[in-house]
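I'll show a typical protein example:
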Amino acid sequence: GRCQGNNFEFEMTFFQDNEDTRRMVLFLRDLYARAGILMRPRPTEWSVMIENIQQKDFDAITLGWTSGIEIDIFQMFHSTQTMEGGDNFINYRNPQLDELIDKARAEVDETKRMKLWHAAERILVEDQPYTFLFRRNTLAFVDSRIANLNETALGLNLMMVPVEIYVPASKQRRR
């Protein structure tokens, strides 16, 4: 982006074939305009977007990340991941964050580890290398006859272990 005098403007690169993203970008454009910021949407084909990411040819870019409850932010935010092919393609660097990530990844005590992750998240909120906009909710309909289905904070049976779900013989409609 460029800041000339009191004017700030930038391009927002986004995947052109995602209607939800397009609507979000247009909403943000209007929101920024109210604050005097000119954001120009840049709809882009996926292959071109990947090339732009690899060449670091963008002012701002929209992407979607998914994660578990305890996310390991190493690949996205650690300084060592700014190299070519790394996922820290925004070149974000913060030695204090790197230290917290390294400690959290080595800590086996869950309570201590979570304190380290929370401290790391506070740095990310303060530095704001990304603007986290939302997290999608999911809705699942499951027949009540299905057994051994566990609901977790991440969804159904998402505890990273294989689980056999089944309909007990007494509840089966066809045998």
